[in-house]
Amino acid sequence: MEPHGFFTDTSVCIGCKACEVACKQWNQLPADGAYFSGRSYDNTMHLESTTWRHVAFLERSRQLSGQTTARPFSWLFLSDVCKHCNRAGCLEACPTGALVRTEFASVYLQPDVCNGCGYCVVACPFGVINRREDDGRAWKCTLCYDRQKVGLEPACAKTCPTDSIFFGPVGELQVRAQARLLELHRKGVHEARLYGMTELDQPGTEGLNAFFLLLDRPEAYNLPPEPRVPTKEVGRAWGMMGLAAAGMVAAAIAAVRAGGEK
Amino acid sequence: MAECHPVGFQWVMEAKRRGATIIHIDPRFTRTSAVSDIHVPIRAGSDIAFLGALVNYIISNDCWFREYVVNYTNASALISEDFQDTEDLDGLFSGWDPEKGQYDPKSWQYRGVEVSPAAGHREMFSGEPRSERGASITAEEHDPTLTDPKCVFQIVKRHYARYTPEVVQQACGIAPDLFLKVARALCDNSGLERTSAFCYAVGWTQHTVGVQFIRTAAIVQLLLGNIGRPGGGIMALRGHSSIQGSTDIPTLYNMLPGYLPMPKASYDTDLEKYIEYNRSASGWWSEFPKYIVSLLKAWYGNNASAVNDYCYNYLPHISGDHSHMVTVAAMADGFVKGYFVLGENPAVGSMNASLQRKGLRKLEWLVVRDFAPTETAEFWRSAPEVVAGDVKPEEIATEVFFFPCAAHTEKDGSFTNTQRLLQWHHKAIEPPGDCRSELHFVYHLGKRLKELYRDSPDSKDHPIRDLAWNYREIGEIQEPDAEEVLAEINGHSLPDEKPLSAYTELNEDGSTACGCWIYCGCRKDGVNQTARRTPKDEQDWVALEWGWAWPANRRMLYNRASADPEGKPWSQRKKYVWWDPEQKKWTGYDNPDCIATRPPEYRPPEGAQGIDTLSGIDPFIMQAEGKGWLYDPSGLLDGPLPTHYEPQESVLKNPLYGQQCNPARLEWVRRDNPYHKAWGDPRYPFIATTYRVTEHHTAGGMSRWLPWLNELQPEMFVEVSPELAGLRGLENGGWATVSTIRGEIEARVLVTERLQPLVVQGQVMHQVGIPYHWSYVGRSTGDAANELTAFVADPNVSIEESKAFSVQIVAGRRASRRRAGAVGPLAAPEPGQEDGGEPSRDLPEVRTKKPATHGERSGRQQQTEEA
Amino acid sequence: MAADSSKIPAWPAWRQLANGDPVGLGASAFSPRSRALKARINEADRAVGSVCPYCGVGCGQQVYVKDGKILDIEGDYDSPISRGCLCPKGAATMQLVTGTHRVKTVLYRRPYGTRWEEIPLERALDLVARRVQKTRDDTWEDQHEKGHPLRRTLGIASLGGATLDNEENYLIKKLFSSLGVVQVENQARI
Questions:
Q1: Same domain flag for B612 and B728
Q2: Where is A19: in which H helix or E strand?
Q3: Which of A155, A163, B531, B558 is deepest in the core (most CB within 10 A)?
Q4: Are B417 and C58 in contact (CB under 8 A)?
């Protein structure tokens, strides 16, 4: 099966939050509660164990290229989601096998296996995965694995009115994203850029199966500019540990020998 | 549009993808502005100045579509010599009667002719009723060169000559270069090869000049040739699933189904007179008798016959205005005893919420039907004035019945969407508990009333006894069969009861019955056409096999205008319907909106009658003369041409005229509905506008109970610019108190550059944005925006002004729960105000008009006398 | 790529090797639940064609039903209006129609009362019919003093219709007009 994922094109997002609700509806997730943030129209603030799509709102005192406004201002939206990294920290940190890579290359959390240890939570460089307080287990976007298995597209992509969220084979999404980027650049929207599309773009995750087209720096949307999954370091860490162990053995032998010579 | 109709907005994004320029004009920078090419912040309520300047730009830069304008509009018609423009009379048209506070439209007419307006508008005229039978277009005088100073084109040109980019700056706070950018984009994208569309919602309608806002857009679009052509038009984005349907089959006081007027008490005393006053000699309304007789046959069945005027005298008669606010004022005065509120929440969604609740307190009984008890159902226990102690539940006599409603998934039925498309929703499951559809409620209420009146000899009870009220009852809950009701609406022949397929089959001799003539054909061949769901991929883009659009499954009105006078498409790019000379008929992607076999070269012979008067180049067939009206000689109460007037409560003196406000506006001058000064009221120095946000729906009955939506917008808030926040010490995320003389509300503050001060006439104007979804019950509560607003309305359709008024805003939670509806004005009138002192809304000669002329209609006595 | 569980013994290490999944992050780690997972609408008895009840756009909806219960409501791909999309309100329709906020009995507040009481539906309908009759009879205006007919009551009014079906509006207008109620209004003017 080909890898499938999301291409989220923020340049056509209208911030309607249909994706947030459609996700909750399909996955029957509870509301997070009522909290007035005072931060533009963003009152859910970030991805949570019960919010698997989250729309970020970015008000800037700066014009967007190609747009005419009475004063320098623009309003950007981004529908954030689990990135389903090619090299997934959560997956590699999970000691129980609750997190698995599916036949669609997405990272799926099996709720019936998860024991709530929380190792995955700290292993995600995006802060996507979290535990639910009511049941203790970790939860995140499944890329609608249940729907994909019967050939349906994920609920958020289906409901998105402006096709800001596009679902499909990752290869096709990459072609689409490149074309869209070129089109925007041709129209003078030079600030458009892709985020995490390939391993080259984002070595720390080896590329994302859910990648983005942004109209500002990733940090502006609260995305890490250079995410690195912690387990990327594991190989080197093991090597260093090996070295250290060897050193300690050597030191011990040396010590024994030295002792023997007494 | 992205805010309130996100899925409809996908088509705007599709157009943008294909190269369209998206222009958004709104006081606020919204989710629509975010993806538009141009955002133009405008002072709320100043749109006619802006649109009028577009008219001026189009004419003075010669951007108008000459062939379209000459052939399809009334540009060449000559107007009465007596006509005087607002330019001549400082903001008034000729015919103003300061005593009555009304216009006499006689001097606005075509030279030597009285043109019949569309049915349903007659009752609005002042003066004596006139028979329209003599109206005839042959007497018209035209100047096809459009140069006669008294022709419509020249009158329009002069009327808007002063609406310059500089005036736009003076009235709207928009810089001339920004205005010119919009004007150029609009003109560059209109013409043979290109069309432009206007989309609007209640931001345009809810003003004392609401109807004239839309009229100005119509003038712009007619001049540019953008009506009746693909990609053109003026689209009303309607806010409820069947708000179009509830206008077509009107739960409105002044109409019967299919835009037939309700009988007027002193004029339409019998069927003959009703037809005489409402039938048009020319144009499609000449078919009027067929529609009313067929309706009466549908309602009273075999009891209706030629002998008894088809039971015409069973219909109640109206006298004057019985619209919502008039009714509520009458309720507050104790004239209305019983009230049904069906899926609506006026204690939140209607103007001056405390006056609404005062009305509810004075009722003997109230029925509310909704998912859960709304603010309207709970007015007696948790309203602000109850919390404040000004009103006590133990003193409220109203008996309240709350009936839980069935959801759309629990009943069969059709909605009519914003594009006139009827779509059927099928019942999926049974309603829970005692939840029932409105169909069930009304049907069973009717059955009970028929039983109660069964043996009554009183003639007043005959309409109930003779009412055709037999519908199949389905299942344990005895739900009436909705499709049988649809079949009655569609109509059938008599006595064989065969379903009709088009309104052209209707007769005036009682041989057809039809509940709503414009819906005739929706159950053609006995098949529910509204339930058709041929997938979009299996048909062309017009999608004629998805649902059913009135009239005649026509998807675009006036589409005859998509072809040139000879019947050929204006361009290949914009072809839609056209004349096929070989088949000798109109054809194309859609059902043509004209007589299909009438060739373009047809001209009515001398003495032609009825629909024979429509020539081959008359796309606007509902008009008596078949032309689009740049100038409206008789249809409106506040003037033949849109003119810039300030809102009832403005921060500015009218920059164009001495007349400040729409002279014909409806006011309710009463202690429970006080107004601010006309402009420059120092106590209320800021402009306010109300609106919806994507995450909630209207007065909240379908959204504030849903956690999934509440978490997205959890609390009542107001939006202010950083400049206003600085001026008033408002903190983002903190609290503010917004007040008018009618009420005070508390709300969280969003400080945002999406709102910006405008510089108008050298003054800095601040606008406050107020969403109106919240109120005191539900799972997400907050103060209601409509505690602030007033009863004041447009004269043509009695729509309120909620989109522009003046307020005060201060930091902190300082609102009292006191309301004008309970305790009278919250602030003392300004010195000089009691005697109608300066500043005045009306020119001196108008000031003699008695205040509250329209408001006093609310009493039963006056209403009766009105007739 | 999903493992065929029938042929491979359940012992995890053996599954890992047999599946070519030596690190155990793929198919070999799948629980029986994950392997059997399917979209719940696959279990639906039927999908019922519907229309979104919120704004005037008229987006198509599909209502998935099983055993008389709603499993799911989503957009209808076939609709030329909405192409499968719904906005946040439309997407929340399932909560609107199945939520715990819905009241399922008739509530009654007596004059001067301070609380709601539950009453049976049939009785409530009887009471309302009698109220209508009494108010209508008390406030009937048959004729104007000048002699022309009025045939109406201004004692009763009705508000609502924009969220209702055409058939419902039709019966409201038909019944109320025949009762002589002229003050019939709805959101279209508001």
A1: no
A2: helix A18-27
A3: A155
A4: yes
Confidence of residue A231 (pLDDT cuts 50, 70, 90): confident
Give the side-chain half-sphere CA count within 13 A for B31.
Answer: 32
Query: Do the annotations mark residue A71 as ligand-binding?
Result: no
Domain extent, residue B798, equals 666-846
Q: What's the gap between Cα C37 and its chain centre?
A: 28
Model pLDDT for residues B747-797, shown as the tens digit of each residue: 999 999 999 999 998 899 999 999 999 999 999 999 999 999 999 999 999
Q: Do A36 and B748 touch (CB under 8 A)?
A: yes
Q: Same domain, yes or no, for B693 and B840?
A: yes
Task: Establish whether this prediction's ipTM goes over 0.85.
Answer: yes
Q: Are residues B723 and B830 in the same domain?
A: yes
Given a cut of 90, is residue C5 above it in pLDDT?
no
Q: Considering its fold, how many domains does chain B have in total?
A: 2
Single out the residue of B716, B744, B722, B713 nearest to residue B809, CA to CA.
Answer: B744
Domain layout of chain A by residue ranges: 4-228, 229-262
C44 interface with A at CB cutoff 8 Å = no
In a domain, B13, yes or no: no
Distances (CA, A) of B401 to B384, C118, C119, C137: 21, 10, 9, 21
Query: B140 in a domain, yes or no?
Result: no
Please report which residue ranges of B82-175 form alpha helices under DSSP H.
Answer: 152-159, 165-172
Q: What is the mean pLDDT of chain A?
A: 94
pTM: 0.94
Among A159, A162, A166, A167, the residue to mutate for chain C (most C Cβ within 10 A) = A159
The predicted-structure confidence for C64-108, as pLDDT tens digits, reads as follows: 999 999 999 999 999 999 999 999 999 999 999 999 999 999 999
Q: Please report the pLDDT score of residue A245 as a whole number.
A: 80
How far apart are the C-alpha atoms of B353 and B802, rounded to whole Å?
A: 12
Instruction: Confirm whether B292 is domain-assigned.
Output: no
Distance from CA of A47 to the nearest CA of B (A): 13
CB atoms within 10 A of CB B495: 7
Is residue B822 one of the residues assigned to a domain? Answer: yes
Q: Do A68 and B37 touch (CB under 8 A)?
A: yes
pLDDT band (50, 70, 90) for residue B861 = very low
Side-chain-side CA neighbours of residue B83 (13 Å): 26
Question: Is residue B701 domain-shared with residue B826, that is, in the same domain?
Answer: yes
Instruction: Test A100 with C88 for CB contact under 8 angstroms.
Output: no
Q: What average pLDDT does this structure show over B239-252?
A: 96
Contact C74 A160 (CB under 8 A): no
What is the assigned CATH class of domain C40-98? mainly beta
> B301, B331, B210: which is closest to B664 by C-alpha?
B210
DSSP letter, residue A262? -
Q: Which of C59, C114, C178 to mutate to test the interface with B (most CBs of B within 10 A)?
A: C178
Of B343, B696, B705, the CB nearest to C160: B343
Q: How far is CA C83 from CA A156, B103, B139, B537, C74, in A?
A: 14, 49, 51, 10, 11
Verify that B799 and B678 share a domain, yes or no.
yes
Tens digit of pLDDT for each residue in B167-178?
999 999 999 999
Residue B732 and residue B840 in one domain: yes
- Nearest by CB to A112, which of C12, C31, C42? C31
Are B752 and A12 in contact (CB < 8 Å)?
no
In tens, the pLDDT along B580-614 reads 999 999 999 999 999 999 999 999 998 888 889 89
pLDDT at B583: 97
Helix (H) or strand (E) holding B380: helix B379-382
Q: Where are the domains of chain C?
A: 1-37, 40-98, 106-189
User: For residues C106 and B401, is the Cβ–Cβ distance under 8 A?
Assistant: yes
Correct CATH for A4-228 of 3.30.70.20, 2.60.120.10, 2.30.40.10, 3.10.50.40: 3.30.70.20
